[in-house]
Amino acid sequence: MGRIKDPMRIGTLKDGKEFFLPMDPTITETLALLARKGSGKTHTATVFAEEFLKRNQRVVIIDPTGASYGLKSSKDGKSEGYPITIFGGDHADVPIDPAAGELIVQVLVESKASAIIDLMSLTKGKRMTFLGTFLETLFHLNREAMHLFIDEADSIAPQKPFGDQARTLGALEDIVKRGRRLGIGCTLITQRPSDLAKQVLTQCSMVVAMRMSHPLDIKQIHDWIGVHCGEKDLKTLIDSLPTLERGTGWVWDPVKNIFELVHFRDRETFDSSATPKAGEVQVVPRVLAKADVDALGVKIAEMTENAKQSDPRHLRAEVARLKAELAARPASTTLAEANAFSRGAHEADKSYSEVRSALQGENERMKDEIADLQDRLATIGRVVYGESEAAGKWVIRGTVTGRIPGGRLNEAPPPFK
Asked: Are 90 and 308 in contact (CB under 8 A)?
């Protein structure tokens, strides 16, 4: 384990010298990690996370793709890595509840624990609901040094927010503008810097720019860095972006006078972000470090048990277990015992049926809402484009396909087929 004052080994320079960054103040600074997919951005973020964790610093990773769990295993997957708690996803220590954002932050702040928030199992709408509460609560409660990693940051703080994204954008804006005084550092990770809200992106004090090829994304970096960077250095950086090797990127921090092309070091933990190759079976680690869930307190234990009890898979398994146990009872089993087992199986079966019924009810409710929305759209179509039923259907069809024209209001719709 590294000492707090030890510099963080990030990678090597072109001349072979090692590249270091100070742990403090990096832990509470805001970084932008910009790279197209396949360039090694998740790998690079993991390097920073490892350096913080080995110095017993707190990290929280917002992981929308389930790629961060490898921190819990060694590089070869045969021994334990860091005992970081995973909320949600395929490797969850604690299941995630979309309504538990505030509770999870309270627990993490009180226990001073690190965590991976795996959002893979949540729909986009539920992700925004969870993250809005999570980020707001973190800003209001945290008062000690920690670092927040946010992958796919452009989906949380987009340039053009829609619906609940306005809330997550506002919460993240508070963190990047005012979070340092509260101990919150942040790394924003995105494939599309041109889609990330400028009021968030421009608050970053350090930029890690890896391979990118889209003109809008390159222009975003050019306009930003060009204000502080010499013309020659700027041209070198911009010209190199489309062809940078995987795992290589420019590190730029004008305050620290850093402008270096760095090849980031190998991970020290399991590479769980590796892309599966055709014809190969994806390798998974044999051993994952066990998180101390008990240390997170009674509330988390209750949330875990409640989630388990309402999980249809658990209920089906309980029904099958009780029925099998009843069938295996010898003929001498008393009537009272048989009735007790029968009641247990009936109650489990009833719980499963209730959950299934609730899900079916939610499905019907959503169908009704969609039908109501279609009726409203049809009305709009008749008002704007004419009184015919075909005009209303044309607007509905255009909404579903994303092809409602942006032309003149008096433009007649085409015949509806």
From this structure: no
For 401, counting Cβ atoms within 10 Å of its Cβ (0-12 exposed, 13-18 middle, 19+ buried), the class is exposed
Side chain identity at residue 117, one-letter code:
I
Query: What token pair was written down for 34?
Result: 């910009």
Q: Tens of pLDDT along 97-139? A: 898 999 999 999 999 999 999 999 999 999 999 999 999 999 9
CA-CA distances (angstroms) from residue 345 to 283, 348, 350, 359?
A: 39, 5, 8, 21
Residues facing residue 30 across a β-bridge = 186
Tokens of 145: 């040094």
DSSP 405: -
User: If you search the block for the tokens 């009890």, which residue do you land on?
Assistant: 309
Span 38-79, pLDDT tens digits? 999 999 999 999 999 999 999 999 999 999 999 999 999 999
Distances (CA, A) of 131 to 26, 122, 169: 24, 11, 10
Model-wide pTM > 0.70: yes
- CA 298 and chain centroid, separation: 25
Strand partners, 21: 8
Give the DSSP per-residue string, 162-178: -TTHHHHHHHHHHHHHH
Residue with tokens 């009726």: 375
- Which H or E run contains 197? none
Distances (CA, A) of 286 to 94, 201, 272, 293, 379: 20, 38, 12, 20, 58
Directed axis angle between helix 298-309 and helix 312-328, to 10°?
70
| Chain segment 329-380, per-residue pLDDT in tens | 665 555 566 566 666 666 666 666 776 776 777 777 777 777 677 666 666 6
The answer to whether 81 and 70 are in contact (CB under 8 A) is: yes
Structure tokens at 310: 């309402």
Chain centroid to CA 238: 29
Report the C-alpha gap between 222 and 238 in whole angstroms.
7
Q: How many residues does the chain have?
A: 417
